[in-house]
């Protein structure tokens, strides 16, 4: 059985890293989003990056300046904290689920980016489509860019903690016309 599995894998032909920024790479990501999440991804807008923190840092450098506010839900992944403060940006924490605090922080003139971890790390909170739509509306109203880290999208389990089953909703489904980026393991 093991030898048969090894032979099948060897016959596949891809034994290492994929070619980045190639049409087949981008098409595979678009296909995954279409079949898994019933949403469309424009392959022309896909950009490869080596890690979530690398892409987050690059986007923060492009969209913010030192001293600008970057809003995150707390508790937050420590890598986010280090990336944001390491670039001289002001980390603005908002408790998970506190929409009033979220609006208060997004409405501040120096708030430039919301880093949305979806599903949330470390709490595992899976945002509903309505929650994400309200967040998108707030970000658009206040001119705040959104970086949606969706690297844990496929770790959603049905009926977590005895609650109703939730499914991951990609930011692409709720994003308005404002500036945004989605980071995923693809």
From TrEMBL:
Its cofactor is pyridoxal 5'-phosphate. InterPro entries: Aminotransferase_I/II_large, Class-II_PLP-Dep_Aminotrans, PyrdxlP-dep_Trfase, PyrdxlP-dep_Trfase_major, PyrdxlP-dep_Trfase_small. GO terms for molecular function: cysteine-S-conjugate beta-lyase activity; pyridoxal phosphate binding; transaminase activity. CDD domains: AAT_like. Keywords: Aminotransferase, Lyase, Pyridoxal phosphate, Transferase. Its EC number is 4.4.1.13. Pfam families: Aminotran_1_2 (PF00155). Residues 4-159 form the Aminotransferase class I/classII large domain. Belongs to the class-II pyridoxal-phosphate-dependent aminotransferase family. MalY/PatB cystathionine beta-lyase subfamily. This is cysteine-S-conjugate beta-lyase. It comes from Streptomyces sp. SID7499. The lineage of its organism: Bacteria, Bacillati, Actinomycetota, Actinomycetes, Kitasatosporales.
């Amino acid at each position: 059985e093991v030898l048969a599995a090894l032979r099948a894998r060897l016959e596949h032909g891809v034994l290492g890293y994929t070619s980045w920024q190639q049409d087949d790479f981008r098409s595979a990501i678009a296909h995954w989003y279409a079949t898994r999440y019933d949403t469309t991804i424009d392959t022309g807008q896909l950009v490869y990056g080596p890690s979530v923190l690398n892409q987050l840092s690059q986007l923060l450098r492009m969209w913010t300046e030192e001293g600008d506010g970057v809003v995150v839900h707390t508790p937050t992944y420590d890598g986010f904290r280090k990336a944001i403060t390491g670039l001289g940006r002001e980390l603005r924490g908002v408790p998970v689920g506190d929409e009033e605090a979220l609006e208060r922080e997004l409405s501040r003139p120096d708030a430039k980016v919301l880093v949305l971890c979806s599903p949330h790390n470390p709490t595992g909170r899976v945002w509903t489509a309505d929650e994400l739509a309200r967040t998108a509306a707030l970000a658009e109203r206040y001119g705040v860019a959104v970086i949606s880290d969706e690297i844990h999208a496929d770790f959603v389990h049905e009926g977590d903690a005895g609650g109703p089953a939730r499914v991951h909703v990609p930011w692409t489904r709720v994003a308005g016309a404002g500036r945004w980026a989605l980071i995923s393991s693809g």
